[in-house]
Amino acid sequence: MPAMSLSSRLNKAVRQQYLNLPQGEKSQITYIWIDGTGEGLRNKTRTLDFEPKSLDEIPEWNFDGSSTYQSEGSNSDMYLIPVRMFRDPFTLDPNKLVLCEVLKYNRLPAETNHRASCMKVMEEIKEHCMWFGMEQEFTLLGIDGHPFSWPTNGFPRPQGPYYCGVGADSAYGRDIVECHYKACLFAGINIYGTNAEVMPSQWEFQVGPCEGIEMGDHLWVARFLLHRVCEDFGIIATLDPKPVQGNWNGAGCHTNVSTKQMREEGGLQYIEQAIDKLSKRHPQHIQMYDPSGGKDNMRRLTGLHETASIHEFSAGVANRGASIRIPRQVGQEKKGYFEDRRPAANCDPYAVTKIIASTCLLYSEDKEESM
Amino acid sequence: MATSTSSKLNKAVKQQYMDLPQGDKVQAMYIWIDGSGEGLRCKTRTLDTEPKTIEDLPEWNFDGSSTYQSEGSNSDMFLIPAAMFRDPFRKDPNKLVLCEVLKYNRKPAETNLRQTCKQIMSMVENNHPWFGMEQEYTLLGTDGHPFGWPSNGFPGPQGPYYCGVGADKAYGRDIVEAHYRACLYAGVDICGTNAEVMPAQWEFQVGPCEGINMGDHLWVARFILHRLCEDFGVVVSFDPKPITGNWNGAGCHTNFSTKEMREDGGLKIIEESIERLAKRHQYHIRAYDPKGGLDNARRLTGRHETSNIDEFSAGVANRGASIRIPRAVGQDKRGYFEDRRPSANCNPYIVTEALVRTCLLKEEGEEPTDHRKLTA
């Protein structure tokens, strides 16, 4: 089939025979990291003589940063520091997936390592027990770059029937979503749910609630699982925020936020305070909400297709055209959480959660300079 | 190609992932009826333990502006779990959860006909109203042409297809077989299947179900059919007249009985009910498809085993009548009757409700009675 990769047509029964081979005491550890683009994921695997039970049993490693847009060839070694471990849903137990931070040769964080500074902020605000839930939208493409299952050289019926749809004329590529969900559950990712999205071939999964630094960790690994599952099927998942021009929805990463105070009785006042602070730092947030300082989101946040315009900040109860939406239930119960609808699908969740935490809990107008 | 691209994704790969253990976590797929009154929508959430009853399932919400149900500026709508089934796609311990939709003010959404139906059914519990609905449907390729028909053409005329066997008579039996098994697994009260008069048209029957269960079981059976066809890469249509010309339409014949009708001498009650129905034809026609009768106007022509939409008729073993009394019922002098008017895309909640209102609550006139004032 033209839409699916050659690789995906390799005989999976043959593959299974080999993957069924026992491996004795050895375990395979796949190290995962974010490359120099701030969006791409890389991975390589090593053997350990035992099954690691905790993170500290997994050694530091290194890689060639000049091949990942991260360093010069003359000084290319970069460090991989394991930060979180998951079960491997591809090669199964006892093998592991290990998310890593990248350090430069001088052991300072690499340019696209936003985790290090995010960790510092999350430590500072720990007492607030800030929870996040992120709604990752994505679009499936064939290897020809056209949305998966769309007519070649053409378009499907206009948007309307696809959101949460069922049926071969409404849901394109559900197999990927089903398999990704199972893979996440097996791996130990905190996956909350899934649904089909407004544009055909577009889907969403939600990760959370996660506290602090966990949000970024779980979301990045969930993204890795998505790319890896798609690779097996021979198609591509893109996190581009506006994959198709015209009357077709973009892809975001709506971020739900709450603190202990917001979740308790009368929490609505803390939500409103937080929104007030967010309203004063709109351009700073937009800069952090996609990997190109806002340029990607310019194509998506138009004020149409259930987005707010990139130029203005707005907030409202149950309003999907606003920058911040307060869910109706929260408005009624006067406590809960709020939803920041601005982050793009390809955002870095460390950068997003860090600036939200900073603005809501560490910001005051006179401190602006130092933030 | 008549089948979807999605259906050509490698199922062996899929099976490897679907076999992964999921610990104690459970996937609950919430299902609801959208603003069209015919379309189904679904989304899934993870639960930490297996729900044993419907009460274990939390309320949820969704974006009604994307399902023809609300405006973007005030789009949240509520999902209230109503009936739970096993999930034949993801299997145990995972669940399918049929939901009612409430608006932002917690009043029923326009196409939430379940709430009123439940209220009416609760008024007649002692009469034990039983229903059996015969769901006809047509299989289409992704090009919109009936599945198995020659592209740009037609098969031989109707005659050999009804309950037929053989590759030249039965188109798409795999779907029917898979659907039957999936319904049995899920806990849907499916009581049978057969091939229908038009090629690529099939029928399954759900029942006997008492009261509100009829609507619940039929909607979930429809969801399972859509979802299954998606896996196979074909489309199921509940349109009441998918092909114009000398080709059958698709209905949802509704069989109905009460405790009294099923007992000795029940035929008398059946005949009384039919007299009441005769006086309320327009009210029922309005309830029997999602467009107040416009869809059925294409189907109820008086030909192809239908009655004419403008006239009410009844008769023993008469398939050209609005109401048919099965021959055996005529002989035993008790049993049930069949209302042949509902279209394939009807909403079973309002169909069953209408039968109860007219036959048990003995309502008259063109409008349904508002019983809330009486029971307040």
TrEMBL record, chain A:
EC code: 6.3.1.2
Claim: Transmembrane helix is one of the keywords in the record: no
Domain GS beta-grasp stretches: 27-107
Xref: InterPro entries: Gln_synt_N, Gln_synt_N_sf, Gln_synth/guanido_kin_cat_dom, Gln_synth_cat_dom, Gln_synth_gly_rich_site, Gln_synth_N_conserv_site, Glutamine_Synthetase
GO MF assignments: ATP binding; glutamine synthetase activity
Example of a GO biological process term: glutamine biosynthetic process
Recorded coiled-coil stretches: none
Subcellular localization, as worded in the UniProt entry: Cytoplasm
PROSITE patterns: GLNA_1 (PS00180), GLNA_ATP (PS00181), GS_BETA_GRASP (PS51986), GS_CATALYTIC (PS51987)
Catalysed reactions, semicolon-separated: L-glutamate + NH4(+) + ATP = L-glutamine + ADP + phosphate + H(+)
Alphabetical keyword list: ATP-binding, Cytoplasm, Ligase, Nucleotide-binding
Record GO cellular component, one term: cytoplasm
Keyword ATP-binding: yes
Location (main, coarse): cytoplasm
SUPFAM superfamilies: Glutamine synthetase, N-terminal domain, Glutamine synthetase/guanido kinase
UniProt domain GS catalytic: residue ranges: 114-371
Xref: PANTHER family: GLUTAMINE SYNTHETASE
UniProt record similarity statement: Belongs to the glutamine synthetase family.
Protein name per the record: Glutamine synthetase
Organism in which the protein naturally occurs: Cottoperca gobio
Gene: LOC115016902
UniProtKB/TrEMBL annotation, chain B:
SMART domains: Gln-synt_C (SM01230)
Entry keywords, A to Z: ATP-binding, Cytoplasm, Ligase, Magnesium, Manganese, Metal-binding, Mitochondrion, Nucleotide-binding
GO biological process, one term: glutamine biosynthetic process
Annotated GO MF terms: ATP binding; glutamine synthetase activity; metal ion binding
Domain GS beta-grasp: 24-106
Named cofactor requirement(s): Mn(2+); Mg(2+)
Coarse class of the protein's main subcellular location: cytoplasm
Reaction equations catalysed: L-glutamate + NH4(+) + ATP = L-glutamine + ADP + phosphate + H(+)
One GO term describing the cellular component: mitochondrion
Domain of life assignment: Eukaryota
Pfam family, one: Gln-synt_C
EC numbers, comma separated: 6.3.1.2
InterPro entries reported for this sequence: Gln_synt_N (IPR008147), Gln_synt_N_sf (IPR036651), Gln_synth/guanido_kin_cat_dom (IPR014746), Gln_synth_cat_dom (IPR008146), Gln_synth_gly_rich_site (IPR027303), Gln_synth_N_conserv_site (IPR027302), Glutamine_Synthetase (IPR050292)
GS catalytic domain residues: 113-376
Subcellular localization: Cytoplasm; Mitochondrion
Top-level EC class: ligase
PANTHER family associated with the record: GLUTAMINE SYNTHETASE (PTHR20852)
Similarity comment: Belongs to the glutamine synthetase family.
Protein name (database record): Glutamine synthetase
Source species of the chain: Cottoperca gobio
